[in-house]
Amino acid sequence: MNNNPYAWIEASLETIHRADWYRSVQTINSLPGATVLLSGQKVINFASNDYLGLAGDERLQTAAIKAIQQFGTGSTGSRLLSGHRELHRELEQAIASTKQTEDAVVFSSGYLANIGVITALIGKRDLILSDQYNHSSLKRGAVLSGAAVIEYPHNSTAVLAEKLSQQRQNHRRCLIMTDSVFSMDGDLCPLPELLDLAEEFSCMLLLDEAHATGVMGKTGAGCVEHFGCTGRELIQIGTLSKALGSLGGYVAASHTLIDFLRNRAPSWIYTTALSPADTAAALAAMKIVQQEPERRQRLWDNVNYLKQLIRDNLPNLKILPSESPILCFQLPDAATALTAGKHLKEVGIFAPAIRPPTVPTSRIRITMMATHELEHIEKLVNTLKGMQL
Ligand code: PMP
């Protein structure tokens, strides 16, 4: 018997290496933007969630600096202890107003928001129905809740309906949960049908709007707006760290539900409040999202231009169905995806390989930004053409 209780870790890492699943960080040492310095090399950035190009915006920087000068760098405690500032409330009101919900509450990250909401609302006697492609934070929250969890095949409302009619009556509460824009594929959930099923079977519905906030819908309110479902009863979660260029998460829902979360969500109650700088930057971003719809228009123009160039030049490229600024090119295996990502980087394009276990099949994932220039998109397509994928 091997007496070293840590020896298995090295063996496990070796297995990860052998499967081409090993992951490591890459250093960016410049402001975020459509081009960045990646380990000193200037690259066109197709790997950022900064959809509207706000993470480097001077107005967000100024708001963050002012907040630091006024309130300091740290919040010094949880919201219920000494961490609450008027800025938090202003941000929550701005989110509720954009989402047209009664109230909202901000968490220190989207991941913590998902875990907090699920574990507050659902317990051992309950049932969770979760899309197979949901984000890790939803899946982890489901495990932590202790509930019975059924994963339904991606976007299959038929299987979901079947499971509900078989299982719903055996459980106290039921939560259906789904990403609205699927983060690693770029397609959308069938929201109106999911809301209908939730109503029919008396289930709560949790919608993760992380990649939809600021991006989807006429005013950037997300997929609820995109699908014309504003005002229907559900729980919306999102992040302040993608199109809003800051850090943090939010939940938007009824007064009662938000009030309940402030009393029952452990990852809100027992963690330090969002920092003044992050809060102020997100609030500045919320205002820009409302005041500058042309940013969102530029993002969609870029998405459409890329799709058109691909149609015209790369008819054999296997693109996963997408209705968002996330576009994925499917590749046969992890090694091919890694080689493709490496080649793209060598020619100055940052578009990473995404592999199992993050996703079921290996791919190159592209995220578009409002601040990409036409020539950035053209260089990407010309390079892919030369690679004969
Ligand atoms: N949900 C989804 C769908 C996400 O893609 C992410 C971030 N990758 C999160 C939640 C977590 O958000 P945050 O980064 O703010 O923790």
Report the structural category. alpha/beta
The CATH level-2 architecture of the largest domain is identified as: 3-Layer(aba) Sandwich
Q: Which strand order spans the largest sheet, edge to edge or round the barrel?
A: 3-9-8-7-6-4-5
Summed up, the domain count is 2
Q: Write down how many β-strands occur, each being a DSSP E stretch of 2 or more residues.
A: 13
Subunit structure: Homodimer.
Family: Belongs to the class-II pyridoxal-phosphate-dependent aminotransferase family. BioF subfamily.
Organism: Anabaena sphaerica FACHB-251
Protein name: 8-amino-7-ketopelargonate synthase
Labels describing this entry:
389 residues; alpha/beta; Aspartate Aminotransferase, domain 1; Aspartate Aminotransferase, domain 2; 2 domains; seven-stranded mixed beta sheet; three-stranded mixed beta sheet; 15 helices; 13 strands; 15% strand; binds 4'-deoxy-4'-aminopyridoxal-5'-phosphate; pyridoxal phosphate; Aminotransferase_I/II_large
Model description:
This protein has helices at residues 7-18, 58-71, 79-83, 86-99, 110-121, 136-145, 157-167, 191-200, 223-226, 255-264, 266-269, 276-291, 293-313, 334-346, 374-387; strands spanning 35-38, 41-45, 103-107, 127-131, 148-152, 174-179, 204-208, 235-239, 249-253, 326-330, 349-350, 353-354, 363-367. α13 packs parallel to α15 (374-387). The mean pLDDT is 96. The protein is globular, with a radius of gyration of 21 Å. It has 2 domains: 22-51 and 293-387, Aspartate Aminotransferase, domain 1; 58-291, Aspartate Aminotransferase, domain 2 (3-Layer(aba) Sandwich). The protein contains 15 helices and 13 strands. It has a 7-stranded mixed sheet with strand order 3-9-8-7-6-4-5, sandwiched between helices. A 3-stranded mixed sheet has the order 1-2-11. Strands 10-13-12 form a 3-stranded antiparallel sheet. By secondary structure, it is an alpha/beta fold. The chain is 44% helix and 15% strand. The chain starts with 6 loop residues before the first helix and ends with a helix. The longest helix is centred in the last third of the chain and has 21 residues, at 293-313. Bound molecules: 4'-deoxy-4'-aminopyridoxal-5'-phosphate. The site of 4'-deoxy-4'-aminopyridoxal-5'-phosphate has 14 residues, from α5. Its cofactor is pyridoxal 5'-phosphate. Keywords: Acyltransferase, Biotin biosynthesis, Pyridoxal phosphate, Transferase. It comes from Anabaena sphaerica FACHB-251. Pfam families: Aminotran_1_2.
